[in-house]
Specification:
about 210 residues; about 70% helix; 7 helices; globular; mainly alpha
Length: about 210
């Protein structure tokens, strides 16, 4: 009996693709540190009084007070928009994107804090005085394209892109008229709400 030709043999089953490991808190903290170092260099060489980035246009205490009020408002609006579009494709994609993060325990808080500090230092404190709100918001969107993994230019992708761009404009105006501390607070609360929503959605699917 002649052995079957190799082309007659059934194809062996492909091994299942290994699950991608979650993105750890340490990666977010490292990204924050890199952004802060780049921002510090830009601020040092382009601004006459580098430390003034924390103290103007409003005094730090006023930035804390006004920023906290704006942050709570932004968080409420962010959650309301999620509730309105909870069943939309753009929301599903956003949840899938951030589900790659390790959201156990207090990680949503620390990840949100790392993102808020790093991104506001780089985009608002360092780049916005040089390029303005609109160009910086466009750069902010471009840097988030790999995060959201826009696969095609459809309605869901456009909604996601508009959300990222609009959030950046809000943060830029907060920085311009109130200050960096206020912008960090607004960014922090938007991200905390977003990450907690993602964690809740993941848990509801696994129950």
């Amino acid at each position: 009996m002649t052995p079957p030709a190799s082309s007659d043999l059934p194809n062996p089953p492909k091994p299942p693709a290994a699950a991608r490991p979650p993105i750890r808190l340490s990666a977010q903290v490292l990204t924050c540190l890199v952004m802060c170092l780049i921002a510090a260099a830009i601020i040092w060489f382009t601004q006459d009084v580098p430390l003034a980035v924390f103290t103007r246009p409003a005094a730090p205490m006023w930035q804390l007070v006004i920023g906290q009020g704006l942050a709570l408002l932004a968080a409420a609006v962010s959650y309301g928009l999620y509730r309105l579009g909870a069943s939309s494709e753009s929301t599903a994609r956003t949840i899938a994107t951030y589900a790659r993060l390790d959201l156990a325990g207090f990680n949503p808080l620390w990840m949100a804090l790392a993102a808020a500090i790093g991104e506001e230092m780089l985009f608002r404190a360092a780049l916005q005085p040089l390029l303005g709100v609109w160009i910086v918001s466009l750069l902010f969107l471009v840097t988030h394209v790999p995060v959201y993994r826009f696969r095609k230019l459809d309605r869901a992708s456009l909604v996601q892109a508009a959300g990222v761009f609009g959030s950046s404009v809000v943060l830029g105006l907060t920085f311009q008229y109130v200050g960096l501390i206020a912008a960090i607070l607004v960014h922090l609360w938007i991200d905390i709400v977003g990450l907690l929503v993602v964690r809740a959605a993941i848990r509801s699917r696994t129950m």
